[in-house]
Amino acid sequence: MASIDAQLRLLAPKKVSDDDKLVEYDALLLDCFLDILQDLHGEDIRQTVQDCYELSAEYEGKHKPEKLEELGNMLTGLDAGDSIVIAKSFSHMLSLANLAEEVQIAYRRRY
């Protein structure tokens, strides 16, 4: 079953702003990436990446030093192999965010 958000978009497609579409594309790509990451590396790595992502977002939004410290502690507590997987995961997530933005730009040019 489609999400409530998707159902509402079907009812009123013209009410969806371009920025909403970018957020939707980015979230969809992130969800797919995290599912693949879990399939390849397990639930623990997925959860760690997700926790790091959420802490990063909290720090970016509120600039609370304790969030940055918590993120730093989480990252420094990882073993070398997990650190590499998590660093590469963030690199891939940034690439996916850029891809979502490029899709939005192409969509704006087309319509």
What does this structure look like?
Pfam families: PEPcase. This is Phosphoenolpyruvate carboxylase. GO terms for molecular function: phosphoenolpyruvate carboxylase activity. The protein is mainly α and about 110 residues long. The protein is about 85% helix and about 0% strand. The chain is built from five helices and no strands. It has helices at about 5-10, 20-40, 45-60, 65-75, 80-110. Helix 2 runs antiparallel to helix 5. It starts with a helix and ends with a helix. The mean pLDDT is about 85.
Beginning-to-end CA distance, first to last residue = 29 Å
Give the averaged pLDDT, no decimals.
Answer: 85
Q: Strand portion, in percent?
A: under 5%
Total strand segments? 0
SSE order in H/E notation? HHHHH
The percentage helix is over 70%
Could you give a short account of the major beta sheet?
A: none
Write down the Rg.
Answer: 17 Å
Number of helices: 5
What are the low-pLDDT stretches, counting only 5+ consecutive residues below 50?
A: none
* Backbone structural class: mainly alpha
Shape: globular
Pfam families: PEPcase
InterPro entries: PEP_COase, Pyrv/PenolPyrv_kinase-like_dom
GO molecular function: phosphoenolpyruvate carboxylase activity
Protein name: Phosphoenolpyruvate carboxylase
